[in-house]
Amino acid sequence: MGERPSGSRPLSCPTRGALSGQGSWERLDLLDEELEIQFPVRPIPRKDWTDPEAIGLMRVGQPVVITGSNLAKPMVDKWTLEYLSTRVNPEAKMLVKRTPGIFMHSDPAKDQCSYDFESRVVWDKMTFADFTQQLETPHRSEGGSREDRLYLQEGLSMEGFGPELAKDTCECNWKWLNEVQRELGFGKLSDNLLLIGERGAVTHCHYDEQHNLYAQLYGRKRAMLISPAHWNKLYPFPVGHAADRQSQVDAYEPNLARYPRFAEVEGVDCVLEPGDILYMPEMWFHMFENKYEPHSMSVTFWFNIVNPDPRSIEVPMRDPRMRCTVRRNLEKFTLQALGGRKAAEFFRKWGRGEELTGEFAATLTKLREMAAMLIDPAESEAFLRELVSSRYDIPVRA
Ligand code: OGA
Ligand code: FE
Fold it and tell me: What is the DSSP secondary-structure string of 199-236?
């Protein structure tokens, strides 16, 4: 294992190590406390867009920072808060998330199992003028009274952005983007999400099921990525939980008693500058820190994954991205077979090593059969154990 990042704290933290491990991030303040991620990182390679190694890395599912592509040039050249302010529809309400802690995405509509989980991230809808005005009210870290940090996250397809901003979007380097899309077999462009994060706003460790060409427009931003090969060290919330795809571990103050494998996580990182494009392959865990300028601006170019031709799938599966899909499918199967509440109970009992009888025993037999078909039989049992170990000790509502 590599060196810990220099200047980082020791892994045990007396003030928070004793917490349950869920919720310690609720009080995290990156800037106030000079927190540092508790896993070692190597730099993500930076490649010019004309360098064949750039597309080569993408082809093998590795992250890369691509320079010089001019993908989002009109936005990089022009987009500032002032520029946007005078061009958006003044009535249009945009999604602004706020929290005093870390920005962990969750969606109550995804909770199929009645898990007891309350997000500290509030979703507001407000005009762009209200957003910029709130950004100007001093935060606690500057002697003000505002506790929350703000993060605008709105799709550019929203009509409220108006015709001039749509024109800037149209003048992006779509030619190059289409070439990359074709060459790498990406599916359809699904969304362009505009992200305006205030300094101190941190996005929690999670993965998405899409390819992402992530364009930095304004200010700098640190990105930290972890390969899906480390899935078992990050203990993502279960499928059927509101925080599905998010790690249960606080990367700044990990509870290693509860999540011991986190100690072996290794990642990669970069500081994105305006004009840089970060390729984030699907299923790679990622986190972001806005910690340089007062705010930073980025836009995603998200592409759907095309399901591989079943005849071309390599079995037993070794590709870490495919193995994540298998895990998700095993969890989805269980939710369907048992229903949400019972599935949560089944996984919790199995994870704790309790004896399973009746339909729980039958479900486990079925999961073993499915895993044995897709994963090397020599390791399919370990694969299944990791699916449940320390992931399902989550309270359920009465
Ligand atoms: C993403 C993402 C969050 C951020 O683009 O997938 O998680 O803070 N972005 O930019
Ligand atoms: Fe993401």
Answer: TT-EEEEE--SSEEEEEEEES-EEEEEE-GGGHHHH-B
Compute the distance between CA of residue 158 and CA of residue 270 in angstroms, rounded to an integer. Answer: 30
Per DSSP, the three-state class of 193 is strand
The ligand 1 atom at the shortest distance from the C-alpha of residue 151 is 8
Q: Cα–Cα distance between 350 and 241 in angstroms, integer?
A: 18
Q: How far apart are CA 6 and CA 392, in angstroms?
A: 33
The answer to whether the pTM exceeds 0.85 is: yes
The ligand placed nearest to the CA atom of residue 152 is: 1
How do residues 64-99 score in pLDDT, each as one tens digit? 999 999 999 999 999 999 999 999 999 999 999 999
Nearest CA among 101, 104, 91 for reference residue 242: 104
Q: Which ligand is in closest contact with the Cα of 300?
A: 1
Instruction: Specify the DSSP element, H or E, that contains 124.
Output: strand 122-126
Ligand 1 atom nearest 214 alpha carbon: 5
Q: Which residue has the least CA distance to atom 3 on ligand 1?
A: 203
Largest CA distance in the chain: 65
Of all protein residues, the one whose alpha carbon is nearest to atom 6 of ligand 1 is: 208
